[in-house]
Amino acid sequence: MTHTFDVAVVGATGAVGEVMLAMLAERKFPVRHLYALASQRSVGAKVRSGDNELTVLDLATFDFSKVQIGLFSAGGEISAIYAPKAAAAGCVVIDNTAHFRYEDDIPLVVPEVNPQDIARYTARGIIANPNCSTIQMVVALKPLYDAVGIERINVCTYQSVSGTGKEALEELAAQSRAVLSGQPVTSKVYPKPIAFNVLPHIDVFLENGYTKEEMKMVWETNKIMGDPSIRVNPTTARVPVLYGHSEALHIETREKLTAAAARALLEKAPGVVVLDERRAGGYPTAVTESAGRDPVFVGRIREDLSHPRGLDLWVVSDNLRKGAALNSIQIAERLVATFL
Ligand SMILES: NC(=O)C1=CN([C@@H]2O[C@H](COP(=O)(O)OP(=O)(O)OC[C@H]3O[C@@H](n4cnc5c(N)ncnc54)[C@H](OP(=O)(O)O)[C@@H]3O)[C@@H](O)[C@H]2O)C=CC1
Ligand SMILES: N[C@@H](CC(=O)OP(=O)(O)O)C(=O)O
């Protein structure tokens, strides 16, 4: 008989939570009882997981001793309070927020890169799910790193508004309607209009001039790859795309790697699909390839004209799937297969 598990999804009414619920059903995760939790505002609302309709319960009064796994995506402040409580009640928390990611005794896991770190969940009962932009980048870079090493990564991101949550999806739609009908544009979620615009700003500004989203890509790449010597220089930008983050990566490897060799490595890498034809449309985009799909897509693979060991790549993935819900569920799948 298949072993089944009781699971709570925290933030079940949100952009990530909805995808979590859908993907648990899609991937046939061995769920016995599934609980959808959110704030008091949503209590009694209905959400779906495959064919099942669930009634949303209040996180604040939920008894976590009823579940073995908690998938958290309701923001860092919520995780700070409830993840330790859930863990103390015997629930293993897989946390999508940035709150615990940089603590030494909390593993930060991308299953294609450092699955071995899942075993360290026993220290605190919490496993951290990395930042969406970091996840797709390290999935694409791991096979190249293993082959020739990586000294430095320059990365520019083009991140969709779904990374900010449901309100941002609504803001982009409302602003687009306003612009196209000649009405005034109002901004609430972002500091400047996002429709028909690009904002070089995600998360808060830090003292060194980088934003926190950019520093997450630095700190998390070093921790997940287990190599603090990799230097990472990111610029993260928000673009008027609904689903799917895109990234231009410019890497400097330790030993020379040709574009052909990189392509061959990526073609057999887990979780990666290469779409790299040197013709119009022979590359992946957020709208046409990644939105609603699982892989990390890689294209535009070429040798950097300006550096003897430089390589350029274009990497696209669905930020709500591999960048959040799918990565968390893949962690849960490995957790139950080996440890629970
Ligand atoms: N790994 C990653 O890269 C990503 C991580 N995230 C993390 O997930 C979080 C949620 O993102 P997203 O789904 O896009 O955001 P949304 O704004 O779409 O949803 C927020 C969710 O959190 C719930 N929530 C808010 N306040 C509370 C509360 N006090 N108690 C219980 N539940 C609460 C909301 O419930 P209600 O409807 O009742 O308000 C809703 O379900 C982010 O803040 C971030 O930390 C998000 C995207 C990617
Ligand atoms: N910052 C990401 C989404 C997110 O919530 O990331 P994090 O979990 O690292 O805060 C985006 O805006 O696209």
From TrEMBL:
Signal sequence range: none
Gene3D superfamilies in alphabetical order: Dihydrodipicolinate Reductase, domain 2, NAD(P)-binding Rossmann-like Domain
Record's keyword annotation contains Oxidoreductase: yes
Lineage top rank: taxon: Bacteria
Binding positions (phosphate): 101
Record key words, sorted: Amino-acid biosynthesis, Diaminopimelate biosynthesis, Lysine biosynthesis, Methionine biosynthesis, NADP, Oxidoreductase, Threonine biosynthesis
Catalytic activity: L-aspartate 4-semialdehyde + phosphate + NADP(+) = 4-phospho-L-aspartate + NADPH + H(+)
Database matches in InterPro entries: Asp_semialdehyde_DH, Asp_semialdehyde_DH_beta, NAD(P)-bd_dom_sf, Semialdehyde_DH_NAD-bd, Semialdhyde_DH_dimer_dom
GO molecular function: aspartate-semialdehyde dehydrogenase activity; NAD binding; NADP binding; protein dimerization activity
Ligand binding (substrate): 159, 238
Reported function: Catalyzes the NADPH-dependent formation of L-aspartate-semialdehyde (L-ASA) by the reductive dephosphorylation of L-aspartyl-4-phosphate.
Annotated protein name in UniProt: Aspartate-semialdehyde dehydrogenase
